[in-house]
């Protein structure tokens, strides 16, 4: 290991992390979808102009914005959700978010519109066909940003949704000194242009993505390697499904405590520390949808408790391991104690 030594890059003046705990801490503002997902099981997909019977049908709460918010809030972080839903937004979904402590002052109900809805058909081979109705998220220019959206906010997390709609708010956040973390998720492939991605990234302190999104990001930016991209942001998180995740961070940024466990690596080309974060195995794997969102929620919640970046990412990995154990991205979100206990069982202590 060469490069910065342990403890050299802590937050300036040993200050608090930019995101805090409920009820009064500086909030994490999560911008993204709040969806209703209807999953229907069929024996086989129907031919055009024919009908078949549904074997079972179930409604799930979903959407990246709501998934991340609910995960982080249940784990104790102070979270505000900015999302557009329709007049049909169901009371039980609203109550579920509120019960976990998500601040819904940024939830905009667009009357006359339908809440973003995903219709998923799953056949006996577990192949799926999905049809998404974006609802008001497809034409956000009709919605007005709620006043005070950035008040008391310590971190902005931009997940799915039109970047053209978010960019002015992101610019204002940057002007106010609020770090922005970009996470376009699957929309990187079909909503973002290379130019818009480059512009949003230039305003961002960090980027979250999975491996296919990483390939797309490199293509958009004309870069060769993950390290090249890591050099452009203070935090880069790449999740790798059941192979764990990798975190690159800039120990000089003043945002992350620099604690260097075994397995870290100083990347001299990009001047970032690379941490290889192990997978925390689940008890059983039922459905991995939403694992990435739970990971993000876990990361912020751990950071809010002032854990260093290694422990925050390990905690994130453990939080995600619960979500794969049930169908639906919000059906098995863990509490802080549940994650801590699982890590302790596996021989890790996060303090
Ligand atoms: N089978 C699994 N068992 C345990 N943990 C998992 C599993 N799959 C994923 N995870 C955890 O979740 C993290 C994020 O998963 P993944 O890379 O699949 O995200 P993603 O592709 O963004 O998923 P999604 O968009 O569905 O939320 C992984 O880095 C890992 O820590
Ligand atoms: Mg994802």
Structure explained in plain terms:
The model is unreliable at 1-10 (pLDDT under 50). This protein has one domain (12-345): UDP-N-acetylmuramoyl-L-alanine:D-glutamate ligase, CATH 3.40.1190. By secondary structure, it is α/β, with parallel strands linked by helices. It contains ten helices and 14 strands. α8 (291-304) runs antiparallel to α9 (309-323). The protein binds adenosine-5'-triphosphate (ATP) and magnesium ion. Adenosine-5'-triphosphate is lined by residues 185, 210, 239-242, 244-245, 279, 281-282, 285, 288-293, 295, 317, 320-321, 324.
What characteristics describe this protein?
single chain, ten-stranded mixed beta sheet, disordered N terminus, alpha/beta, 10 helices, binds magnesium ion, UDP-N-acetylmuramoyl-L-alanine:D-glutamate ligase, binds adenosine-5'-triphosphate, four-stranded mixed beta sheet, 351 residues
Gist of the model:
It contains ten helices and 14 strands. The chain has helices at residues 64-74, 91-99, 163-175, 187-190, 194-202, 211-221, 226-230, 291-304, 309-323, 336-345; strands at 27-31, 35-41, 56-62, 79-86, 107-110, 117-122, 128-133, 153-158, 180-182, 206-210, 235-239, 245-249, 264-267, 272-277.
